[in-house]
Design a protein that fits this description.
The structure is a homodimer. Chain A is mainly alpha-helical. Chain A has ten helices and no strands.
Chain lengths: 204, 204
């Protein structure tokens, strides 16, 4: 097994073990067993159990960022961009329930971790959503009254919550329904649109 | 100290200790010290550390549900109801940063807990949002194309994410701005509204 293969194998094993037993109840020796390596080998690649979780997170965020960038390629319409973003997030989560559980549940266990500089990839992820919103505002497709930063965070929160529900197996809707639904909410909102607006010159 | 006082005092101490050290790093003896009771006293009221966290959660959800019900009293307009709901959630979180941290961060640490029947108060909370949406749909104020259940979950996710950011102290906006912003996003959406609609009879 080459060095990068071994590192990858340990990370994959960690995802399985953390998802099954929870991060705090998991032991490094369980990860080693699942990966088929000696306990000591783990420490050639990682400082401790927390370091493994951080690397799982960084690797996964890198992977989802790469997928998002690939999915956005060639898209022009801001509405389409936002739809594709939500879809890619859901698909990535659906693909690996164990990974989703580790990222959405286990990752939040340590508030120390949430405050660390290792949250940079998360900042990049939020930045991608904010950029789609800014571009949409510049193109006149999105309203300028909403802050791209706050809106990006709200959209991430909503997508993440629905993805969590999905990962936990409480699925009352199909993936594509949930996805279409979420983007419709962000795009057009709950309020019914008036049949005419002040600028249209009063009632028809 | 009467019995209910002692229980309350232990729970308040637990919130402080869990928020400072994280749930898994906290010891029951630290909670006892903070509450000013003997270690053994804790076990008269709670089975173990996890039971304390569950009771903190149930008590807090009961309190926030009570506040939400009180805040909704006498309101008729669905839009106003949704605004007040978001506002009350943010105000409750802002009032106790420690409690917010325990609820939004520490609570997610155990996926076992997330799956337990103790999540009932959370279901009631989601149900309150879904009911506001259903009533709004019946009154013709909200579009019927959105599912109340999925929308409630998406709205909770967005509010919770922004409340988490607030609780973590990364505040780039005032509480009222964040609040107004979030409800505007749900109500009117990102897309700019057309200046006239097909039913208004063309351009003015």
């Amino acid at each position: 097994m080459t060095e990068p293969d071994k590192r990858r194998r340990i990370l994959d094993a960690a995802v399985k073990v953390f998802a099954q037993y929870g991060f705090y109840n998991s032991k490094v020796s369980q990860v080693a067993k699942e990966a088929g390596v000696a306990d000591g080998t783990i420490y050639l690649y990682f400082k401790n159990k927390e370091d493994i979780l951080i690397q799982v997170f960084i690797d996964s965020m890198d992977e989802i960022l790469r997928r998002q960038e690939e999915a956005q390629e060639g898209l022009e319409d801001p509405v389409e961009k936002l739809r594709v973003f939500a879809e890619t997030h859901f698909l990535s989560v659906a693909e690996s329930r164990a990974l989703a559980e580790v990222i959405t549940v286990e990752l939040r266990q340590s508030s120390k971790f949430m405050r660390s500089t290792d949250m940079k990839p998360f900042g990049r992820y939020l930045g991608m959503i904010a950029k789609i919103i800014e571009e949409g505002q510049d193109a006149g497709a999105f309203t300028r009254t909403l802050s791209p930063r706050l809106t990006a965070r709200a959209i991430f929160g909503a997508i993440d919550e629905l993805a969590l529900e999905w990962a936990m197996g409480k699925r009352q809707s199909s993936l594509s329904d949930t996805c279409a639904h979420t983007t419709e909410l962000f795009l057009t909102g709950l309020q019914t649109r008036p049949t005419s607006t002040p600028s249209s010159g009063g009632k028809p």
